[in-house]
Amino acid sequence: MSLPSGVFQESYAQDMAIFRTRTQWVLLLAFLVLLFIMPVYANDRVLTIMTIMGITIISVLGLNILTGYCGQISLGHAGFMAVGGYVSAILTAKLGWSFWAALPAAGVSAGFIGIIFGLPSLKIKGFYLIMATVAAHFIIIWLILQFYGITGGADGMAVPRPEIGGLVLKSKASYFYLVMILTCVAVYLAKNIVRTRVGRAFVAIRDNDLAAEVMGINLWAYKLTAFFIGCVFAGVSGALLVHYYAYASTDHFPFMNSVWYLGMLIVGGMGSITGVIFGVVSLKFLDELVTIMGPMLAAIFPAIAAQAAASLGLITRGLVIILFLIFEPRGLVHRWELVKAYYRRWPFSY
């Protein structure tokens, strides 16, 4: 990582630090302060958007480890979220577990299911692996619907709100704090996972799995590890989503969510933790912009208002993803790296 002109590191520990200058620490603290005082100046709608955004970031972080770093493309991520959501729902609603015990259990359960459906990655790759993960999503949803006595089937099931010392997290602000804290922890964990020996092995497999195997990397172990880690993040985010709505339903985990999560990686920048945040935030804000523009479009074009308003969100998302694939395949994070390189090298920007 480049540093501003005239700034040097004097030890390996300094060089490996995530935040390495005083300016970076000040900006981080300022961001965290603004983030955690948001309930003071934001309304419930903004808090809802930010909460869903945080849950989505946790899920896409897992997909980024699996696809962006290890190169195992998955379109079954929403299915793995459903596993975590329903495991947490069953443990808390029917077995009386605490949310704090059910949350890690949901993540680990989704991780083990991910290992099962990750087994085909040992023999297939590319398009064939994509189809295997698509099948995983529909198999998981089908099983949830069939076990009506346990999961509630198509009717779903009520889920209790999380509690802290007898305090039930009912308000938008309280759940916002919960999600933001867990999102910060997830970002920190993901950032450090990809900097370890395991993360470097993931990158080697992504770039050239044959060369990685020749170098002594165990493809079988590391591919399944990537599926496990990625699905743990998905399971945790699914549990948070279910408890946010206080209801578990397969409608919360549509297949198209898996497609949009992959689109968020494309827009933000695949293989980058910062890119995950950029991708999720930009597409979520795009959704809100489209929601605001819908009534305006209806007023300007009354003849096509209903059809256009219904499909404008899908059209806009698809168009943005196509444009990024053509003109900026490395995503927003690449633009951000160029901006940082410019001001860090000033006045020697060449």
Q: What's the structural blueprint in terms of helices and strands?
A:
Layout: H1 12-16, H2 22-36, H3 38-41, H4 44-69, H5 77-93, H6 99-118, H7 127-146, H8 148-151, E1 157-158, E2 163-164, E3 167-168, H9 172-193, H10 197-207, H11 209-214, H12 219-245, E4 247-248, H13 255-268, H14 273-300, H15 305-327, H16 332-345
Antiparallel strand pairs: 1-4, 2-3
Question: Overview of this structure, please?
Answer:
- With 350 residues, the protein is an all-alpha fold.
- The chain has one domain: ABC transporter involved in vitamin B12 uptake, BtuC (Orthogonal Bundle), CATH 1.10.3470.
- The protein contains 16 helices and 4 strands.
- Strands 1-4 form a two-stranded antiparallel sheet. A two-stranded antiparallel ribbon has the order 2-3.
- The chain is globular, with a radius of gyration of 21 Å.
- The longest helix has 28 residues, at 273-300.
- The mean pLDDT is 88.
- Helix 5 runs parallel beside helix 7 (127-146), helix 5 crosses helix 12 and helix 13 packs across helix 14.
- It has helices spanning 12-16, 22-36, 38-41, 44-69, 77-93, 99-118, 127-146, 148-151, 172-193, 197-207, 209-214, 219-245, 255-268, 273-300, 305-327, 332-345; strands at residues 157-158, 163-164, 167-168, 247-248.
User: Portion of residues in helices?
Assistant: over 70%
Q: Which segments are poorly predicted (pLDDT under 50) over 5 or more consecutive residues?
A: none
Gap between N and C termini: 17 Å
Q: Please provide the count of β strands.
A: 4
Radius of gyration, in Å, reads: 21 Å
- In CATH terms, what is the architecture? Orthogonal Bundle
Structural class: mainly alpha
Integer tally of domains: 1
Count the DSSP helices.
16
- CATH topology name, in short, is ABC transporter involved in vitamin B12 uptake, BtuC
